[in-house]
TrEMBL record:
InterPro entries: PA_dom_sf (IPR046450), PA_domain (IPR003137). This is PA domain-containing protein. CDD domains: PA_GRAIL_like. The lineage of its organism: Eukaryota, Metazoa, Chordata, Craniata, Vertebrata. It holds the Pfam family PA. Residues 77-141 form the PA domain.
Amino acid sequence: VQCSGHSACRSLALSTWLLSFCFVHLLCLDFTVAEKEEWYTAFVNITYSEPAPDPGLHTEKTECGRYGEHSPKQDARGEVVMASSAHDRLACDPNTKFAAPTHGKNWIALIPKGNCTYRDKIRNAFLQNASAVVIFNKERKKENEYKCLSFP
């Protein structure tokens, strides 16, 4: 992504960074067993580049994610990409295309919550050879603050 002007680049980097704090390595689902709620938290490492005045790679780590009940509880690495088409960012259509890197490179599908089941979103991303899926909640409590997914 190219941006012009220091303020625009910094704003884009900050927005990406804030959004990434609610990423999940694979799938954001929890499940209930009997009357006890159980889930597996996911540590999320985000590496991003920052434009001036503090250029270079930066890494952040947070425990703001949950693995799905049937998801492998293991690391996932790769470039994070969204659906190519702005009108299908929710990845509910089986024909959703992602801006994935060249063949043979791992990539992680970044998909907003909404409009269809998590299962559909995951299936559609894996049909395009995603290594993992991150479903995020784009709702904000306050300006520049994102919250982790909550589950019914």
